[in-house]
Write a structure and sequence with these properties.
Length: 428
């Protein structure tokens, strides 16, 4: 291949620049912010009342390790309170040498009390801030404020950042199908019906056996042992105090806790994590998960979900108003394991097992529909499905959809197909 004059000149200049850059690599200035990772990785927002006055509480998880996947030893929680959101942000920047910019946030946590109250202040701030990362993931912290969540999550040796990444990326977890970022939350809030779902995180005890969590050094433990020997037979107050100490010594992490139902800019309820599978089946094509069923003999068997499909159809009255919804659900599964002590896959048993699987999925869908009616939130998307199939009819009932939605009846049909199974015999 022959080089042109331009190609040869470009090669010579490129080689010269590479040698020059390599020779002075230690003198080339780089943004220290990117090398030290001295920035916030997650932020939380809470609104609470003190002395009948409303306070905005901002919490940030910060640390030199930045996105490190190992431990939380370099991380800490920074928290400020103020009467306004703007002043809280100014105060946060003034009391720390950390770089406090929303553009650095990977995760944003909203305390449950704040989410139940009103998201308007939160939404207004992030909607107008020019430094916001719209791909930052949003979570609601169940049964506690964002500040409390951060403090408990840091007691574990499990990295907070790594744990969130696992929840979001691991496709074996149903939560990976219901990601929500800041842009999604803004769309939920500013849509006409203002109905949507946000993933929930809940604190759980850490699986790591950390005997030293929340405790002192060995000398302190020796002193506690000596005191315990001297104070044998102490009163109930001492026992209660010891219980408090042991509780403080526990290490915690967090797990996917279901989905928060957002309606009219507020949290109005939760879809428990046990029902999230039914939500995913009704709204998307679920490709992972398991169904556990127990037969009439009390034998537990597990079926791995390979794929699902759904079809929605409507029955309308003479005015074109929907009165009944038919849901046809198909589930393809593999037979993974059983605790049976005898051969279970017989021609007589397979139809029984299929029916048990069908009933398990159907009951979950019924509970999910009941939750939807209870909160008055059409998070399943029944209205959207009707609008796509009958746009002209939906145009005339759009303003009355909420009332129509609450009166709908449902026919649910679930059919499962066993794709693969082995001749599983008794365990000897």
């Amino acid at each position: 291949m022959r080089f042109t004059k331009f190609g040869a000149k470009f090669l010579v200049i490129g080689t010269f620049l590479f040698i020059l850059a390599y020779s002075y690599r230690d003198s080339i200035p780089v943004p220290t912010e990117l090398t030290t990772l001295d920035l916030v990785t997650a932020g939380g927002v809470d609104i609470s009342e003190e002395n009948e006055k409303e306070f905005f509480s901002l919490s940030y998880l910060s640390g030199e390790s930045g996105g490190s996947a190992v431990g939380n030893e370099d991380k800490d929680v920074i928290n400020v309170k103020s009467h306004t959101f703007s002043s809280a942000i100014e105060q946060m920047q003034s009391v720390t040498n950390r770089t406090m910019k929303d553009s650095h946030l990977d995760y944003i946590l909203i305390g449950e009390e704040t989410a139940r109250g009103n998201l308007s202040y939160f939404i207004q701030h992030y909607a107008r801030s020019p430094s916001v990362r719209f791909d930052a993931h949003i979570f609601i912290t169940k049964s506690m404020s964002a500040e409390e969540f951060f403090e408990k999550a840091l007691t574990s040796d499990i990295s907070v950042n790594a744990r969130v990444d696992t929840i979001l990326r691991d496709r074996t977890q149903i939560s990976s199908f219901v990601k929500r970022n800041l842009k999604d939350l803004l769309q939920i809030y500013y849509s006409k019906e203002k109905t949507g779902l946000i993933p929930v995180l809940e604190i759980v005890e850490s699986p790591i056996d950390d005997d030293g969590a929340g405790r002192g050094n060995d000398e302190d433990e020796d002193e506690m042992d000596e005191n315990s020997e001297e104070d044998e037979g102490g009163d109930e107050e001492d026992e209660a105090a010891n219980d408090d100490i042991s509780d403080d010594a526990k290490a915690y992490t967090f797990a996917f806790g279901g989905l928060g139902i957002i309606k009219d800019g507020k949290l109005v309820g939760f879809i428990e994590k046990e029902l999230v599978r039914a939500y995913v089946i009704l709204t998307q094509n679920l490709t992972t998960g398991t169904i556990e069923v127990t037969d009439e003999d009390g034998v537990l068997s597990t079926f791995g979900i390979k794929s699902t499909n759904r079809k929605i159809s409507f029955q309308t009255d003479e005015r074109g108003i929907p009165v009944k919804v038919r849901l046809d659900i198909g589930v393809d599964v593999n037979f993974n394991e059983t605790l049976a002590h005898e051969q279970i896959l017989t021609d007589e048993n397979i139809p029984i097992l299929n029916e048990l699987k069908n009933e398990a999925v159907k009951s979950e869908i019924e509970l999910l529909i009941a939750k939807s009616k209870e909160t008055g939130a059409d998070f399943i998307g029944i209205g959207d499905a009707f609008a796509m199939r009958h746009p002209y009819k939906f145009h005339h009932i759009r303003d009355d959809w909420r009332e129509i939605f609450l009166d709908l009846e449902y026919d649910i049909y679930v059919g499962s197909t066993l794709l693969r199974y082995f001749n599983i015999n008794a365990y000897n």
